[in-house]
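Chapter review. Work through the record for Iron-containing alcohol dehydrogenase before attempting the end-of-chapter questions.
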Amino acid sequence: MKDFNFKIPQNVQFGMGSLKKLPEILKENNSNHVFLISDRVLESIGVVKKIQDIIEAAGIKLTTYLEVIPNPTIDVVDEAADLYKKCEATSIVALGGGSPLDVAKAVGVLAKFGGEITDYEGLNKVPGPIVPIIAIPTTAGTGSEVTASSVITDESRNYKFSIVSYETLPKYAILDPELIMTSPASIAASCGVDALIHAIEAYLSKQASPFSDAMAEKAMELIGKNLRKFVKDRTDKEAACGMMAGSNFAGISFAWARLGNVHAMSHPVSAFYHVPHGVANSVLLPTVMEFNAITDKGRYEKIYNYIVEKNKETKNFKSEMLIEELKKLNSDLGIPKSLSDLGVKEESIEDMAKDAMKSGNVLANPRETTLEDMIELYRKAM
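Structure tokens for Iron-containing alcohol dehydrogenase:
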């Protein structure tokens, strides 16, 4: 067994109705002025007001920023950071999916250390603890509340870059499954498969450890058992709890094991064509899993048994069975089959492949990957 390390630096509160713990957490953190980061969609369905009411009822001052967009840009980060500094808030509440949480981490960095957000691009460029963040995810998918990265789009480069530092981890996370029970079926599906991919890629990563494996396996068990049920009926409390916990465990697993080619490839797709992150990942998954199959040492069968509809041991397993099951899962959930279905054009493939190769996730992918391999993977996914 190779050497490995991990730490659990956060306070995570899980459970139906756990949102009521927010005032207690804010007071514990001496937060007398909260900066709430979210988006207009969550405002339109009343979730933002619910959080605002809880904070204000506790007698805590509040400033709100709601202009976060999918695949958030540097301009969004700069605008939010400027407002944070002007209002003199003392902590951040990040409400939403991966985009508000990514923006919150970036704002926390700029508010504490200044400069341009691109100054912190890459690994371990954040010099110390950032502004305290309380993360409240409203999707079961990103795991961003327990991951050490923030992904931001640089429109000048047509490129999604990552800030990777354990200093960006939110100080607290509130996982209230009630918040994901109003998600549209399409969001529940793409976010759910994204969470599954986090666990799968961490499980197959060259950097996997017994700790990350434990988190990934439990995540796959919970997501595999509940994903179809939750997409079919978002009012199913047991399925909602399973998806919320599974997404969280998947996030922990890849925070310590990294990801692979699926995520390396999906970021350029989102940057070039504004495709939602979870959808891009879901479409790319079967192609990448087929590419990686020659490196399998028994883990494909374990993954298959977690996600197959009738969860039972399979005789005479072959890797092709997992590939077909992943295609079936996407089909069952209404996810498009190919990149061309998402509007991706052949002429972008080489540029996307070059950007994908810049991702550190390629180094963790179980099969060594060249630029030529990456180009071919995109072509197959078309």
